[in-house]
Amino acid sequence: MNGYQRIASALQGKQPDTVPVMLHNFMVAAREAGLTMEQFRNDPQEMARAFIEAVEKYEYDGIIIDVDTVTLAGAAGVPIDFPIDQPAQAAGARIQSLEELNDLEPVDIRNYRGVQVWLEATSILCRHFGKDIFIRGNCDQSPFTLASLIRGLEPWMLDLANKDCHELVHKLLEYSTGITLQFIRLMAETGAHMTSNGDSVAGPELISPAMFRTFALPYEKRIVDYSHTLGLPYFLHICGDTSRIIDEMLETGSDGLELDYRTDASMVHAKMKDRAVFVGNIDPSGVLALGTPQFVEEKTRELLNIFAGTPRFILNAGCAIPPITPPENLRVMISTARMF
Question: Do residues 200 and 238 make contact, with C-beta atoms less than 8 angstroms apart?
């Protein structure tokens, strides 16, 4: 089997010839290709080259095309800071009150340079690899987290706690959903084999499960349904320990959940094994970036043993892999999967 076939098998619940590996390694790929993050995010040819060289170096099965977590926010008019050698980050909110929603104009994200680069790099990679390597076109932020960037995190949390604001909260979520859906559609047009989003702010470390069900789940479901309408499988990622909302995350209809390393894999295995692919969840910092090769092998084997009885498993880190990660640690993680 090639990489595409291994991941496709996991998605179909069929046993691949070996454990598939999909790396969330855009920062590592950029660093090892000799690129700053500024160069990486501004040149689709160089972005594609970085991922191609990473696949050739480590021989993994699936590429997650990612750039940062604020591209859609930038397209929506949120002020963005662009450090030379770190991912971009929000530098403020787009609106200072929910009442300003009435003044927000519709957004066509095709006009935003960051989106254009992301899509063009995906198209290049799809043409280069065909169906040899699985291409996961990540689509930045889900509506709930995008709304938090447009509004500002602290005011957004206060809005959620105020029932008098909830009508406008849902209006902002509708606005954000329209933006996220645009990216899903444009990503499908590149030839990517699947789509995905992150919804980091929607995790239990910031909002309650009840709030998740009210304000995040309905909009996540719409994104998943739309990707399926376009004929593409979909993965959802939420940062932090998501043990308390696994049932709700599965309710989105996502084909797979990319879970943070802080989520207990043993606990969620029973709930997920017949319903969705588990993607993850090696600690990217404490194990991959800072651990010894022996420790990486130990933690990888521990995770592989948990999922030995199901084909619905793709090995990955539990979040983005730091650029300082030693190559030998990534090689050990992958070779342990290949020999398992």
Answer: yes
- Cβ 314 vs Cβ 256: under 8 Å: yes
Residue 175 has pLDDT above 90, yes or no: yes
Other Cβ atoms within 10 Å of 331 Cβ, number = 15
Q: How many domains are contained in the chain?
A: 1
Q: Which DSSP string do the residues of 124-153 spell out, in sequence order?
A: HHHHHHTTSSEEEEEEEE-HHHHHHHHH-H
Domain CATH number, residue 231: 3.20.20.210
Closest CA to 243 of 206, 292, 209: 209
H/E element, 257: strand 256-259
CA distances from 326 to 57, 168, 284, 329, 338 (A): 13, 47, 11, 5, 19
Strands (E) in 75-185, as ranges, are: 80-81, 89-90, 134-141
- Which tokens hold the place of 74? 């930038």
Q: Which residues contact 176 (CB under 8 A, 6 or more apart)?
A: 76, 143, 144, 146, 147, 150, 219
Do the beta carbons of residue 172 and residue 98 sit within 8 Å?
A: yes
Tokens of 134: 């699985």
Structure token digits, residue 45: 């040819």
Q: Is the pTM of this model over 0.90?
A: yes
CA angle 199, 204, 208 (to 5 degrees): 110
> Can you tell me which residue has the tokens 């990473």?
54
Which position has the token pair 């809005």?
159
Using DSSP's 3-state secondary structure scheme, residue 23 falls into strand
Q: What is the pLDDT of residues 310-320, one digit of tens each?
A: 999 999 999 99
CA-based nearest residue to 256, from 279, 239, 280:
279
**Gyration radius of the chain's alpha carbons:** 19
Specify the 3-state DSSP secondary structure of 275.
coil
3-state secondary structure of 54: helix
**Residue-number span of the structural domain to which 67 is assigned:** 3-339
Tokens of 122: 């995906």
**Kind plus residue range of the DSSP H or E element containing 317:** strand 313-317
| Confidence at 273, pLDDT banded by 50, 70, 90 | confident
